[in-house]
Give the backbone structure.
Amino acid sequence: MTSATRPASAELVCFNSACRARYGITEVLYNCPQCGALMEAGYSGFGNAAALRGLFRERRLSNAPLDQSGVWRYRELFPFLDDYSEVVTLREGNTPLLDAPEAARYGGLERLSFKHQGFNPTGSFKDNGMTCGVAQALRLGLKRVACVSTGNTSASMAAYAAAAGLEALIFLPHGNISFGKLAQALEYGAKTLQVEANFDQILALVRVLADRLGIYLLNSVNPFRIEGQKSIMFEMLDQRDWQVPDWVVLPGGNLGNVSAFGKSLREAKQAGLIDRLPRLAVIQAEGAAPFHDFIRAGACEFRPVPRPETLATAIRIGDPVSWPKALNEIRCSEGAVEKVSEQEIADAKAIIGRCGIGCEPASAATLAGIRKLTASGVIQPDADVVAVLTGNLLKDPDYIYKYHTGKLESPGGARLESTFGNAPIVVPNDADRITELLE
């Protein structure tokens, strides 16, 4: 056994720096019993950096299921399991890093790369975390898993639960979800319960039910979800030969991703895999921007948004549970937080589409935010920027059709401009007339 593959000891640690209480890695904890703060996985070490880099690259040639996963390929960097025999993988991760010159120009940059998580098995970054969350559920011998979801989490959990033989219970806001995402959960056999409440209210409800009924909760409060989502940054760095970008920009809803990204980058630096941290930028929608408003106001108290509103359903969250972790990562990386309008998101999404890439609405907040951050001088035009696209183009097709046909309305009912619209053209069954049109 080499120093690169020797297992590190793992434990659950309270995130609160004033507490840091420690518990066994197999305890079912989402919050610290002593102070109430979120929990995270902690490790004693990660092995030799050069050996790890070589091991990760070597695994790309392997046909072993764990090595073919773009998550478990990096398992030495989140060694919470002592047995990998029950891991369920759908070959998640393995998502591309795509250059986007037109999007770069629109964003005020000389160059821009998109790390596109929409290439995952169920079409979003949630798969990176869900494979780890389900692995922990199997390790604990639990039979039922649950989540509250506006879409992507439910699709991912339903798929991995089905593959693992677990019962999936999905709670979602009644009438407030993309059917493209709900269809996935239904297809994978999950039991869906539509609750007449918003996301944050339902999460509080499900926390009670999970404790009462012995259900394993797989929202981003689950520390093992965060461990899996760390792999997004590990894979991005590996794809760049461990060269660190200046900025990593991502959309912010429940803020689990920025929590995971910051933790992974700090641990990569601790392991000697990188020599510095990139700056993190979180972009929220104007109608669901409590984290942005908290940061900008320099407030001492975090104030949720009671009725969050945005067409970018994946980030329509008014009371993000991971905000304390996100705050720490923004501070550690000297990062930034911005918010963007519905019009800015819609136009940025159309520009991304013109690059031949495409994404769901929440993902486009990244480019909209980059455009604002470069205009304000926070991000310099020559900066090396990686923007994370969190979900697939086909997650919300109604949004796309309405934008390009001039029918897209904001949550308040105002008609959005089809600035870069590409409406379909009705033509007669006449070759001459069509020839005239095309010429």
Remarks:
- Residues 1-6 have pLDDT under 50 and may be disordered.
